[in-house]
Amino acid sequence: MANHNALALIETALRERKLDRTLTSALPPLERSDAAAFIPFGVEAIDAVLRGGLPRGQVSEIAGSPSSGRTTLLLQLLAAATRGGDIASLVDTCDRLEVASAAAAGIDLDRLLWIRGESFDPLHSLRTRLCDRVLERAIKALTLVLQAGGFAIVAIDLADMHPRLLRSLPFTTWLRLQRIVEGSDTACLLVTPEPLARSAGGLTVMCTGQTTWTSQQTGSQQTGSQQTGSQQTGSQQTGSQQTGSQQTGRGHRVTGLETEIRVVSPRRRVDGEVRFTAVANDY
Fold first, then answer.
1. Rounded CA gap, 187 and 210, in Å?
2. pLDDT tens digit string along 49-82?
3. Smallest Cα–Cα separation from 246: which of 236, 237, 255, 233?
4. CATH of 31-280 among 3.60.10.10, 2.60.40.1730, 3.40.50.300, 1.10.3380.30
5. β-pairing, 54-55 with 59-64?
6. Which of 27, 31, 199, 266 is the most buried (most CB within 10 A)?
7. DSSP H or E run through 128
């Protein structure tokens, strides 16, 4: 009884300060009948698991290790949004986007605001101040774009930032972003190496995967965790991605990426798993 009264007092205090949206118990039932309330990936299997796509007015995230398919999903989402006539924005924190990969993924570059960060390797850089400055500028750019409005999807690529650096950010950073997009038609997306933050109505898309490659000497196909090359969509296949050369060591060539995603949301409103394959393409 005492615990129930304490919980009621906390919820009342949050509502008085208009912070009750931080409580998943305060959210109304999620109706997935209005397709306009979501941004689809354009891949039937993924959109079916998400019940329509990423929710507008929320902060969602795509998380995974390198070569897990996280960038492929990001490019596919941007391509689907721009093909549908929407305006999208990408804050490219470490300047990793390959224009050729974006175009091959089907992104309408005329409808994409690309904000380029500083090109460096944050995972191996010992210049802590540089990492802090680059991250700070990226968050500021993200905030300004969200405040400007008019975008269907605003994404920030933090995948190459060290997880420890991201965890050092105050959690109020993500709460401020949610306050900006709440009630708007904009979906804010974080691409991160591990789950970091999402709003109460947002989604976490966890990616795991492995690359496949062939030996140029024997022609045999193998699987492993080499860095991926360019990738193109197909049936239940997603976007184009190039993170480096298509040569992955001596005598080996990347042929594709097999990815499994797991979707997590508050109160298990959306939950499920799906697998897809991205095929390498020379362009």
1. 28
2. 888 899 999 999 999 998 888 999 999 999 999 9
3. 255
4. 3.40.50.300
5. unpaired
6. 199
7. helix 128-148
